[in-house]
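Request: Mind sharing a record?
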Amino acid sequence: MTEIQLNEFLNSKNYDIRLTHNARWIDQKCTPDVVCIIADCIENYITEKGVEKVFTSRDIWFSKYAMENVQAIFRKVDVDDSSAENEYDKFFQQPMKMLAYAGILEETKLCRENQYTVKNRELLSYVALRERNALTFIIKYVEKVLEDSALIKYFDEFFQSPNKNTYEIVKEQFCRFTIENTNIGNKTSIDGLNKEAGVVECRRIFIKIINPLAFSKHTFGTERGHISKHAITYDMLMYNRDNFRDIYAEKPKTISRKEYVLKKKIKINEAYYAYMSAKAKQRLRKYNDIYRGGLSEMLGDTEKATNIHHIFPANEFPEISAYLENLIALTPTQHFNHAHPNGKTTIIDKNYQHDCLIVKTDVIRENIEHGEEKIYDFNDFKYVLRIGFDETTFMDVETYDYDGIKAKIELEYVG
């Protein structure tokens, strides 16, 4: 799915809250990382059970795939622990209700239980692929709901001139509108807005609306009930913010990443990166089988490319381990004889790494310019190179300057 197709899907819907009277079109747990993994759990479930399968939030909650990943990734208590029931119910239910409001799922009620089926598998897969996709969906979806509900003007006025006054206006207008048009709170005393029963809930939801938009516009949003002191950053949008910190941002070049982690006593969420890496590998393998006939991205071997290799090792560079731009499809021989000499996966052959990066540059270019299904992003490739080489000037390369990228890669291997 492309962003054009995503826009076409959203434009085909009418999300006017004045017609649906639904205050829960987005909610507190609808962060990009949570929405992404819930979509992934749903996709895994229907792959196993069948796309027509009717399911509930508890079906997804207690699926083997969810139980193996959610607890470890989000560092929560066991999913079958009775003390966690209320928290997990929100964790699974809120994103599913949002996906249903958007039209990706279909929600029906049987007695007191919400049941779901998948309406748009392609868009579900797009959201499930990675947090960036989930964030793109959330931003565009939020914009469309606000436009359909005639609320966008208040947000636009804030973003045009972000200050304490415009912030209070947009927050109050959103709360007032939601209370007047939904059953989220008592509507008998609108003039006493701060005393309304639903105001606290409205303000919690408001965070999940204004901050993704602020991030997309590189500007201020909300933090702790006030206008934020700085522009909203990627990690501020996430449920599990520690997964998205730039843990190596202040690392001196004179020490290794491993030494820095030990010295600073940094705890890396290995389960999260392992999950994201495995998902990315599966995605690239599927794409390579469909669009490249399962051939290796590196020439010189006619075997099936059954191995997906991290160009920059996952154990050393966990933060880019799930980027498709850091993965390359190889044959077993290429993987264990060339990329990792003598099959020692802890060792990287630098010459072969260089060759992989040059070839990957061409593969990314071909996909972006001519790919039937576009899966790569040039700026993400620059980020992979920036982290892999610990060289910030990769980010200065002009967008789509593939020759410029190759030239900078060559410089990294001189000497």
Q: What stands out?
A: Residues 394 and 408 are 7 Å apart (CA to CA). Confidence is low (pLDDT under 50) at residues 187-195. Residues 270-291 form the longest helix (22 residues). Strands lie at 105-110, 113-118, 220-223, 226-231, 307-310, 327-330.
